[in-house]
């Protein structure tokens, strides 16, 4: 039981640090880095991104954290594209590049 309580406290601390605008690139998790790499490979639609990265697990919030940390953004449909797409922000690109 004590281990579970300690884990809860650690998760809370991790989440509090994630929203820090000065969060260093090394602080992101490996799954978040995987998602950023996946998005950088080619244009991705919102639907495609949700299919690949959305989770109903409250402990696996990669998509939500990336949005909250301003690593990705959703761009509306445009004349040349019928669906919204997900792109890296400048901060997401810098994080992926290690800066």
Structure report:
The chain is mainly alpha-helical. It has a domain at 28-96: Winged helix-like DNA-binding domain superfamily/Winged helix DNA-binding domain (Arc Repressor Mutant, subunit A, Orthogonal Bundle), CATH 1.10.10.10. Helix content is 52%, strand content 10%. Helix 2 (30-41) packs across helix 5. The longest helix has 17 residues, at 2-18. The N and C termini lie far apart (39 Å).
Features:
single chain, 99 residues, mainly alpha, Arc Repressor Mutant, subunit A, three-stranded antiparallel sheet, 3 strands, 52% helix, globular, disordered N terminus
Parts with pLDDT < 50 across at least 5 consecutive residues: 1-19
Widest sheet, order of strands: 1-3-2
N-to-C CA distance: 39 Å
Named CATH architecture of the domain at 28-96: Orthogonal Bundle
The CATH topology of the domain at 28-96 turns out to be Arc Repressor Mutant, subunit A
Oligomer: single chain
Number of strands: 3
Rounded mean pLDDT is 78
Helix and strand layout, with pairings?
Blueprint: H1 2-18, H2 30-41, E1 44-45, H3 46-53, H4 62-68, E2 72-75, E3 85-88, H5 90-96
Antiparallel strand pairs: 1-3, 2-3
Short description:
The chain has 99 residues and is mainly alpha-helical. It is built from five helices and three strands.
């Amino acid at each position: 039981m004590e281990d579970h309580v300690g884990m809860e406290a650690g998760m809370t601390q991790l989440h509090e640090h994630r929203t820090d605008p000065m969060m260093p690139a090394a602080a992101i998790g490996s799954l978040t880095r995987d998602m950023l790499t996946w998005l950088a490979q080619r244009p991705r639609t919102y639907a495609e991104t949700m299919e690949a990265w959305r989770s109903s697990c409250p402990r696996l919030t990669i998509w939500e954290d990336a949005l909250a940390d301003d690593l990705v953004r959703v761009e509306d449909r445009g004349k040349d594209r019928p669906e919204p797409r997900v792109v890296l922000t400048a901060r997401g690109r810098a994080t992926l590049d290690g800066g």
